[in-house]
Hints:
Shape: rod-shaped
Structural class: mainly alpha
Distance between the termini: 146 Å
Domain Transglycosylase SLT: 165-235
Radius of gyration: 58 Å
Number of domains: 3
InterPro entries: Lysozyme-like_dom_sf, Transglycosylase_SLT_dom_1
Region (Disordered): 108-131
Number of strands: 0
Organism: Streptomyces albidoflavus
Protein name: Lytic transglycosylase
Amino acid sequence: MTQSRILGLNTLTRNQKITIGGVATAGIAALTVSLVPGSSSTGIEPVAASHSAVAPAWSTAKQWEQSSELSDHVAQQQVVAYQGAKSAAAEAKKAEAAKKAEAVKKAEAEKQAANERKAEESASRSAERSKPAYANNLDGWINEALDIMKDKGIPGSYEGLHRNIMRESSGNPNAINNWDINAINGVPSKGLLQVIQPTFDAYHVAGTKHDLYDPVANITAAANYAADRYGTIDNVDSAY
């Protein structure tokens, strides 16, 4: 056998070698049949070729094919697992980004709310500082009542308030009438403008004390009642 023919055999593929091996095995089996004696005509009886003689070659090829299919299946499973892990990682990253964005949004909202509260407190302090100081006497009470009446849209003048106060109580915020019809009915008139409790409760002005004897609360409630009944406290010149 020459070297070139040996090299040619070595260059055969695995499947080709398996096929050649199978054919060679089959040839040997056939030759064995021709050599076994016992035939009716020649003294040699034919013997059927044994299936097990070609089985090794067939089995090897089948195992090779199954091994290849198994490798492909495993590879596909690995690809699917990798893609699943990659998708899960992307979702986790997305969720983390959304969580951070929500935290930033919440922090900004809290900061804005804090700034708004600070601005309101500053405005309130500024308003308190700019609030005029009223003297704790009849003049101061009337002037404070007039400012509240102006803010609430209640008509009346300094002259109209002062005139009716002097007639009703002579400027005494603790004055009380214990002899008129109201007193007889159990609801005496009280304060600077001699207001009974039911009238005070009905016409009390928000922002003032809910105290019938408080000078400013008494004046504003009486002026509110007079505006409703007479148009303004300035139109009142007698008991009302």
